[in-house]
Amino acid sequence: MDETEELICLCVRALVAQMAGVPGVELTMTRSCILGLTGEPLADFNMLTLGDDPGAEGFLTRSVARARARGLPLLAMMSPRVAPALAPVAAELGLTPVGAAPLMVLRAGTEVAPGRPVKVARALGPELVAIAGDLVAAAFDSPRDAIARCIDVVITPTAGVETYIAWGEAGPMSAVSVTPTGNTAGISLMATPPEHQRQGMGRALLTQVIEDYRRRGVERFHLSASEAGRPLYASLGFEPIAELSAWLLDQAPQVDR
Predict the structure, then answer these.
(1) Domain residues of the chain, as ranges?
(2) How far does CA 244 lie from the centroid of its chain?
(3) Percentage of residues of the chain with pLDDT beyond 90
(4) CB–CB of 29/35 below 8 Å?
(5) Per residue in 65-86, is it b (16+ CB within 10 Å) or e — as a string?
(6) What is the 3-state secondary structure of the chain?
(7) Rounded CA separation 83/79 (Å)
(8) Residue among 227, 254, 228, 257 nearest 243 (CA)
(9) φ and ψ at residue 127, rounded to 5 degrees
(10) What is the C-alpha separation between 134 and 144, in angstroms, rounded?
(11) What torsion, rounded to 10 degrees, do the Cα atoms 118, 238, 42, 39 define?
């Protein structure tokens, strides 16, 4: 198994950690494919990841059928190993290509220059969890109630996802989540609201978090970057190793069933 497929398998495990605690979530998975439906009427909350699995085409077909049955939009990400074969299937099923997301890796030994000194704390307890949720909602322009139902609820001491907040002159200014698995950790939900961007807060938070996890034995970090976030991650030493194809099933929500 090459590194891309290994990391996609870790992404499957990370999505389980990130979604398993969501009330009413529907999870279906193999080692390298996962469907997570929260029931929210937003594609970002209903995720499909397709890795190099012999049954990936069937998994895609069944996942789209299930999303359609529930009237839910769906965001699908495909490994470059399966994308050429699955693209025509996805199009026939009514999905639309919406670009690609680079899978990026920061390896052991890559020096990360420290950012500005800021206070960083893990989000534990109702007050800090609410602050983290506020930052995520503002950064991604997401409904706060949906964030509460799908993200706040899984920020717990034992969920397997660890969320951190950075404070600056204006108070809480940035948040990020980490899902460690052995000596590798996934980075997600890098959230700096627009009014706090271009002040070095995301860099300051991420560099401190990376340094802390390295002290605890994590050797490699990975993430799926947006185009907006890619320059930050590249400047920290993350390298792109693959492009994940993104597809959208966009449909009006219906009554859940």
Answers:
(1) 3-101+243-249, 119-218
(2) 13
(3) 93
(4) yes
(5) ebbeebebbbbbbbbbbbbeeb
(6) CCHHHHHHHHHHHHHHHHHCCCCCCEEEECCCEEEEECCCCCHHHEEEEECCCCCHHHHHHHHHHHHHHHCCCEEEEECCCCHHHHHHHHHHCCCEEEEEEEEEEECCCCCCCCCCCCEEEECCCHHHHHHHHHHHHHHHCCCHHHHHHHCHHHCCCCCCCEEEEEEECCEEEEEEEEEEECCEEEEEEEECCHHHCCCCHHHHHHHHHHHHHHHCCCCEEEEECCCCCHHHHHHCCCEEEEEEEEEEECCCCCCCC
(7) 6
(8) 227
(9) -65, -50
(10) 7
(11) -90
List of residues 6+ apart from 226 with CB closer than 8 A: 101
Q: 115, 246 in Cβ contact below 8 A?
A: no
Model pTM above 0.90: yes
Q: Token pair for residue 4?
A: 């891309």
Give how far Cα 60 sits from Cα of 13, 86, 91, 250, Å: 18, 8, 11, 15
The identity of residue 150, as a single letter, is C
Q: In the CATH scheme, what is the homologous superfamily, with its name and number, of domain 119-218?
A: Gcn5-related N-acetyltransferase (GNAT) (3.40.630.30)
Structure tokens of 120?
Answer: 């960083």
List, for residues 213-245, the tens digit of each pLDDT value: 999 999 999 999 988 889 999 999 999 999 999
Among all chains, which residue has been given the structure tokens 């939900």? 189
